[in-house]
Backbone:
């Protein structure tokens, strides 16, 4: 039944598997210690916040009916500051943290922490206004107006609140889909401004810091250190990498109707530590728009002198990439992502890609530790003109002896949830299709790369086919 929807290729190579790669690749697997360290920092932050609140009459005021609401407002304000600090750290993508959790999981955590901070901020505003209005005998609106107009640093804090609301609204999925990546990215940067405007409010009106010079200095020092770390990771490190490796555009090659590959040359590029399939945030020094970074995956194994990325024209930023000229300087931030051969324990694996999601998987194919017949590639596109790297993948299939199935056609729609396969799949379930294409898939490692909704459909099908969750590795490509 699966034959009606795929064009399959199977190559059995008589050559031995060439497991080339840099030594120590296994060490790039999940750094459990880093996760424990990150969780420990979070626990310490929460404990410190609660201690700060409790020791400054928060716990005592909670027992008093007249001060209870205001006390809860102070607690939500402290927790809001902690959550925003954590969200900023995640936005900065420190390498150790990114390697520990992986980019997709880190993005999910960032979104969850950011949403939590937003609702804590709203709760802080409501509770404090409510508590103050009860004590002053004013209505909520009148009390809120009095707070904004007559209290120190409240106008900047109100502006910060408006910016945070704007950022959160732009991240709602329904709105996010209607925004170009460039617009969304620019809006998201206002978080830094919002936090900067809110810090003076925290130190001047935060009663938990009132009269405690040491705590006040420590609070400012913590935010200054956080700002320095963000600047170092997001600006300093990429600039230093650029100066050291001298990356420039070497060539631009069209791959199909809407995709191009960018070849970049530089020096000592293996020192970047990038693995096939990882991605960088790229900035091309073309003048207008160079400040907006774009996450593009390596589409070939990196060498000491050359890197390759492949980009689909989906917006102003990615469209401009196709018009790059040789010699343009490049800033690179990374490498990021856990979609690389170092996470593979060896043995059977299936690589599932949609459209330009083939990019990191194509790079991984050369280095995955698997013997002839142990690898399967499932490549999903809406029409044959959108295939990328078909020739390269076929050549690798002959060399390494793996199977390739092209799933071509419009995406099937079901009542239950969106499907990851074409309409021609008929009534066979998504999980059954996966089992037909990859016999014994329950014993495979599964690597998935594509748009978020589609990748979730593949993950669900793999789970229903018996693949343990720990063996499913996904990376979203939304560009």
Residues:
């Amino acid at each position: 039944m699966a034959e009606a929807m795929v064009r399959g290729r199977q190559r059995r190579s008589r050559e031995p598997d060439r497991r080339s790669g840099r030594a120590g690749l296994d060490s790039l697997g999940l750094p459990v210690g880093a996760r424990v360290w990150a969780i420990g920092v979070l626990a310490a932050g929460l404990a410190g916040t609660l201690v700060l609140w409790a020791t400054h009459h928060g716990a005592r005021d909670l027992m008093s009916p007249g001060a209870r609401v205001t006390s809860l407002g102070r607690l939500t304000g402290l927790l809001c500051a902690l959550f925003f600090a954590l969200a900023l750290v995640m936005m900065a993508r420190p390498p150790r943290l990114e390697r520990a959790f992986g980019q997709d999981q880190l993005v999910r955590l960032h979104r969850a922490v950011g949403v939590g901070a937003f609702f804590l901020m709203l709760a802080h505003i409501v509770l404090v206004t409510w508590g103050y209005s009860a004590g002053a005998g004013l209505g909520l609106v009148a009390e809120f107006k009095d707070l904004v107009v007559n209290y120190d640093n409240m106008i900047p804090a109100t502006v910060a609140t408006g910016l945070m609301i704007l950022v959160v609204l732009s991240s709602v999925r329904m709105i996010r889909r209607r925004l170009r990546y460039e617009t969304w990215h620019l809006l998201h940067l206002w978080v830094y401004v919002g936090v900067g405007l809110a810090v003076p409010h925290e130190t001047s009106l935060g009663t938990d810091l009132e009269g405690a010079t040491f705590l006040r200095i420590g609070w400012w020092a913590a935010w200054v250190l956080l700002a320095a770390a963000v600047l170092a990771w997001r600006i300093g490190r990429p600039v230093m990498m650029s100066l050291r490796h001298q990356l420039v555009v070497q060539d631009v090659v069209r791959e199909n109707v809407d995709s191009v590959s960018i070849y970049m040359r530089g020096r000592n590029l293996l020192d970047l530590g990038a693995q096939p399939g990882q991605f960088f945030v790229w900035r091309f020094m073309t003048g207008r728009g160079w400040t907006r970074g774009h996450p593009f995956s390596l589409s070939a194994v990196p060498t000491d002198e050359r890197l390759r990325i492949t980009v689909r024209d989906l917006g102003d930023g990615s469209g401009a990439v196709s018009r790059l000229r040789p010699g343009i300087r490049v800033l690179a931030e990374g490498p990021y992502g856990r979609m690389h051969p170092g996470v593979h324990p060896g043995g059977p694996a299936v690589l599932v890609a949609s459209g330009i999601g083939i990019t990191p998987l194509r790079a991984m194919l050369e280095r995955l530790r698997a013997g002839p017949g142990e690898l399967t590639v499932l490549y999903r596109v809406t029409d044959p003109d959108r295939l990328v790297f078909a020739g390269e993948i076929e050549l690798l299939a002959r060399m390494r002896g793996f199977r390739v199935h092209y799933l071509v056609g419009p995406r099937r729609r079901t009542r239950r949830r969106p499907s990851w396969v074409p309409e021609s799949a008929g009534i066979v379930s998504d999980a059954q299709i996966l089992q037909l294409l990859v016999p014994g898939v329950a014993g495979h490692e599964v690597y998935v790369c594509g748009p978020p909704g589609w990748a979730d459909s593949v993950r669900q099908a793999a789970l229903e086919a018996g693949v343990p969750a720990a063996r499913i590795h996904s990376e979203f490509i939304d560009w």
